[in-house]
């Protein structure tokens, strides 16, 4: 620890760190597991952060925190699937913060965007969500996923193409995608992150 760290003390530094990043980590968990597990995932993530506080990156800690939260979420998904409590990659219902606007603009479009995301593989889906929902840059999302930036860019390119196909050709379960303008918010989010 540097001289600045010892003056304030590890507890005080961690308290500021926690206050600055807790909401981001909780939203990350909320969008993936819903409100019942979001606080637990965030608490577990910061428990790991406390144990590894002296070794974690201080310049950009959010990708590191998302990586820890991702591992916790994945473990919970596995447990829920083992118990037969979760059959889709997204929990049912609307898990936004109270009063937050719907980012897709309409429930029907949100549903088709989530269905398209759900058809991606787990790593590609997480990459898209890190970029579109968490607002990370490709290099930071690559850090969360544990791959190189070049690999993340290739995955992103391929995932974008698949999502566009999925949006144009929904699964044959009889559900119809609503008619939308050519440039939908879901497609715009995919195009905005290079």
Automatic annotation (TrEMBL):
Presence of the UniProt keyword Transcription regulation in the record: yes
Highest taxon listed in the record's lineage: Bacteria
Domain (RNA polymerase sigma factor 70 region 4 type): residue spans on this chain: 112-163
Key words, A-Z: Sigma factor, Transcription, Transcription regulation
Keyword Transcription regulation set for record: yes
Alphabetical list of Gene3D superfamilies matching this protein: 1.10.1740.10, Winged helix-like DNA-binding domain superfamily/Winged helix DNA-binding domain
Residues of the RNA polymerase sigma-70 region domain: 18-82
Biased composition annotated in UniProt, kind: Basic and acidic residues: 167-176
Region of interest called Disordered, as start-end residue ranges on this chain: 86-106, 167-194
Transmembrane regions: none
A Pfam cross-reference name: Sigma70_r4_2
Ranges of biased composition (kind: Low complexity): 177-188
SUPFAM superfamilies: Sigma2 domain of RNA polymerase sigma factors (SSF88946), Sigma3 and sigma4 domains of RNA polymerase sigma factors (SSF88659)
Family as reported in the entry's similarity comment: Belongs to the sigma-70 factor family. ECF subfamily.
PANTHER family, sorted: RNA POLYMERASE ECF-TYPE SIGMA FACTO (PTHR43133), RNA POLYMERASE SIGMA FACTOR RFAY-RELATED (PTHR43133:SF25)
Full protein name: Sigma-70 family RNA polymerase sigma factor
Organism: Nocardiopsis changdeensis
């Amino acid at each position: 620890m540097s001289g600045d760290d010892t003056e304030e003390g590890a507890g005080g530094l961690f308290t500021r760190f926690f206050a600055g990043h807790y909401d981001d980590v909780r939203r990350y968990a909320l969008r993936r597991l819903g409100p019942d597990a979001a606080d637990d995932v965030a608490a577990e993530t910061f428990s790991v952060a406390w144990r590894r506080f002296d070794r974690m990156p201080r310049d950009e800690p959010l990708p590191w925190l998302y990586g820890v939260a991702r591992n916790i979420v994945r473990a919970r998904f596995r447990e829920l699937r083992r118990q037969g409590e979760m059959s889709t990659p997204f929990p049912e219902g609307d898990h936004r913060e109270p009063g937050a606007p719907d980012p897709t603009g309409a429930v029907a479009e949100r549903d088709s965007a989530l269905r398209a995301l759900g058809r991606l593989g787990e790593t590609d889906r997480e990459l898209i969500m890190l970029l579109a929902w968490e607002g990370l840059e490709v290099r930071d999302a690559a850090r969360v996923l544990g791959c190189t930036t070049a690999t993340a860019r290739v995955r992103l390119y391929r995932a974008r193409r698949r999502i566009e196909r999925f949006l144009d050709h929904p699964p044959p379960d009889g559900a119809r995608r609503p008619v939308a303008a050519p440039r939908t918010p879901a497609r715009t989010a995919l195009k905005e992150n290079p």
